[in-house]
Amino acid sequence: MYSRMIILISLFILMFNLTLTAQQVSVVLKNSKVVVGQLIEENPEHLILHNDLGQIIIKRENISSINYDTFIKMESSLNAITESKLKKDSLQYGSKFVLNDRVVVHLRNGNVAAGLLLAKSLDMIMIQTDIGKLVIPKKDIRLIEYISSEYAERGEIVIVHLTNGNKIEGNIYFEDSDNLTIDSKIGRLTIDKKNLRSIEYTGKIGLAETALVDQYTAMVVGRTLVEPRLDEILLGYAPGFGNDFKPGYKLGYISRFLLSEHKGFYLSALGSLGITYFALNKSQFENQPIPISARGGAVISTISAGGMISVYPQESSFFEFNFAPMVTTHIIFSTLEKNYPSFPSLNSKVTETKVKFGVGTKFGIDINLENFKVGVSYDKHFIFGEESINYLSLSIVKNLF
Questions:
Q1: By C-alpha distance, which of 195, 292, 299 is closest to 250?
Q2: Where are the alpha helices (DSSP H) in 1-150?
Q3: Pairing verdict, β 179-184 and 373-383
Q4: 235 has a pLDDT exceeding 80
Q5: Are strands 112-120 and 196-205 parallel, antiparallel or unpaired?
Q6: How many C-beta atoms surround the C-beta of residue 42 within 10 A?
Q7: How far apart are CA 169 and CA 346, in angstroms?
């Protein structure tokens, strides 16, 4: 009789443990955040949960309370629930558990959204952004980066436990749904998550890499990070080139290369190529004492190189001022054909190509839009031995290549 009671008690404890390991729990942390997942292991020092991030170890000292939901089964059984019930459960989770994790969401189309992660379901997530709540289908998401201290972030020191029993300590460099990359004492290692048992977060921040939270602050709270290289396509208007030519029009290309970035301004090197066409000012010849009909024009190809300083008044300014001194080379090709109806013997045609050097300055303002910049600039080119040229230009600035 006694032995039977021992067996029944053992079976009861075993069934209880099996039920416990199949439970879904919500862990309320002392910082008011909630972590939801399947309970894998529970002991006096820590809990191990399994959720979309993999296995997470949460120390008891960081836990405020644990809520056990006995009606939620294992993840494998969730797949058997009907679609309507999944949607119903997702709504319940969304209203019951507010995650409030700060994330950066990278979409498959290249866009980035940042904010607080409010809720997750099997097919979508909801985040709170500066412009309101945003619901994003998971099929459009390439990567979600967690920057709250309870989850992985670049620069945080973790202890990675592998399925073969080994463990590696290092700084998290990158993490997605398939792989985890860390900087360890033996170098940078990429670990397939199939070989990952758990990640233990030490709470320490390493110095090998810039923490993601700092990158987020620079990108979202501060101004947009300056691109290392930008392309500028511009259309310019020149009032004239001496007395013989009418106003001209310029098509130009500028490539900017970031040299250094500082608080309130940054420095760039630039190279440019422009082509300007000036039509002949025929009235200059028609008003002569002897009647003349003239035709021709000038094409000026300009190659420039120099530096540029860009100043923005505030960290979050949507516009910036540019000043760029440069040295220039001009290839001037001109034609002038004169016809004297009364004196055909005086007819002439002159074609000339000259190479001239000079200096130039560019003053402008760029307006920062979502994916590109729109600029307005004034250029002054001093050509040695020729007339100077002034330009008023409109441009689009974007990384094209």
A1: 299
A2: 2-21, 75-78, 83-96
A3: unpaired
A4: yes
A5: unpaired
A6: 17
A7: 90
CATH code of residue 46: 2.30.30.100
- Terminal C-alpha separation, the chain: 83
Number of structural domains in the chain: 3
The reply to whether 5 falls in a domain is no
Give tens-digit pLDDT for 167-188.
888 877 766 667 777 878 777 7
Residues 66 and 172 in one domain: no
User: How far is it, in rounded angstroms, from Cα 300 to Cα 278?
Assistant: 8
CA nearest neighbour of 391 among 238, 275, 287: 238
- % the chain with pLDDT above 90: 24
- Among 306, 304, 296, 288, CA closest to 241: 296
* Residue 319 tokens, joined: 């516009």
- 3-state percent breakdown (helix, strand, coil) of the chain, nearest 5: 15, 60, 25
Q: At which of 168, 196, 220 does a domain end?
A: 220
* Strand ordering across the sheet containing 34-42: 63-69, 24-29, 34-42, 46-51, 54-59, 196-205, 156-162, 167-175, 179-184, 187-192
State the DSSP code for 6.
Answer: H
Residue 76 forms part of a structural domain? yes
Provide the pairing of β-strand 141-146 with 101-107.
antiparallel
Note down the domain range covering 202: 156-220
Of 252, 254, 246, 255, the closest CA to residue 275 belongs to 252
pTM for this model (two decimals): 0.46
Task: List, for residues 365-378, the tens digit of each pLDDT value.
Answer: 999 887 789 999 99
